[in-house]
Design brief:
With 302 residues, the chain is of the alpha+beta class. The chain contains 5 helices and 17 strands. It has a 6-stranded antiparallel β-barrel. The longest helix is centred in the first third of the chain and has 15 residues. The structure holds 2-acetamido-2-deoxy-beta-D-glucopyranose. The site of 2-acetamido-2-deoxy-beta-D-glucopyranose has 3 residues, from loops.
Length: 302
């Protein structure tokens, strides 16, 4: 082997074998691309690549779901996005995208996926509606492609304002067009007891599996499904607390239901999967505690 080739081979081998759930220091999670902070923008269209963790899932024929990048190989999405698709391995993800029709981003195919271990499909909804997808190769991070931070275990966000973003339908009518450009909206997390009462006619509210959030006249909608429910923390970093799961139409009185990320079992599932798929996370300045948390759980080289 040529000397230079050998060096490259050794470097890539070392990089590969060391990708086992470390915290990468060359990247950091939850950094949005906020231009002209404070300027009032009309409408709800997000500026280009504002939320670089947003990902879009396509079947060979159509746009399917949203998702969010959480490590250098993994995307978090809704369980039903994977469960009900005919051939999961024929789907692909577009990252760093702005325009859903143009698919103007980087395309990644699927290597592996994992439904939440407690995912359960009922006739009108799904419980623990979360799945993790591993792309082939390593995601190349840049300004437009970066991961979001994850919430810590057992955190309560009742009353707090959150953001939902996606390429979902623009209104509640049956033939409403999917959004071409990423749309965003704000909702408030409701107290679990209110959720239980308000959704009781459709589902059994499970506080370990679900978050519910609502805002009159605005909501996540089909096509936003799988995308994150997230907020900007005190240190200007964004963290995900939920995954868009289902609602009853869009922006009616029924609250939006989200897969809950702060549940301890869900956190363990995500972290174990990150390790199992040899993927690394980016540093998380807001949660210095997280590295200890990983360590305690797995006793591995985070
Ligand atoms: C759950 O999903 C399976 C496979 O798609 C389906 O056959 C079954 O009817 C679903 N169960 C319910 C209650 O919808």
């Amino acid at each position: 082997m040529h000397f230079l080739q050998r060096i490259i081979f050794i470097i890539s081998f070392v990089t590969w074998t060391h990708a086992t759930g470390k915290i990468r220091s060359d990247c950091s999670c939850g950094e949005a691309n906020i231009i002209n902070r404070g300027r009032i923008v009309n409408g709800k269209e997000a500026t280009k690549n504002k939320y670089p963790w947003l990902a879009a899932m396509y079947t060979p024929t159509e746009f399917m779901c949203g998702g969010s990048i959480i490590s250098d190989r993994n995307i978090l999405t809704a369980g039903h996005c994977i469960f009900y698709v005919d051939k999961p391995f024929s789907t692909y993800w577009v990252l760093g995208m702005h325009n859903q029709v143009l698919q103007d981003g980087d395309r990644y195919y699927i290597d592996h996926y994992s439904l939440h271990p407690k995912f359960h499909n009922f006739s009108v909804y799904d419980e623990y509606d979360m799945a993790l997808v591993t792309v082939r190769g390593i995601i190349r991070f840049n300004r437009n492609i970066r991961p979001i931070c994850l919430t810590l275990p057992n955190t309560d966000y009742t009353g707090k304002q959150m953001t939902v973003a996606g390429w979902g339908r623009l209104d509640d009518s049956k033939d409403a067009k999917m959004g071409t450009i990423l749309q965003e909206t704000n909702v408030h997390v409701k107290p679990p007891n209110d959720c239980a009462i308000e959704v009781a006619r459709l589902v059994r509210y499970n506080d370990e599996a679900m978050i519910c959030a609502h805002e009159k006249g605005t909501d996540s909608c089909s096509g936003d499904l799988g995308g994150p429910l997230f907020f900007e923390s005190d240190v200007n970093r964004y963290e995900a607390i939920g995954v868009v799961s289902f609602g009853d139409g869009c922006a009616r009185d029924f609250p939006g239901i989200y897969g809950k990320l702060s549940d301890m079992q869900t956190q363990l599932w995500i972290k174990q999967y990150i390790v199992d798929t040899n993927s690394d996370i980016c540093s998380d300045p807001a949660h210095k505690i997280q590295s200890n948390y990983f360590n305690d759980v797995f006793k591995i080289n985070f």
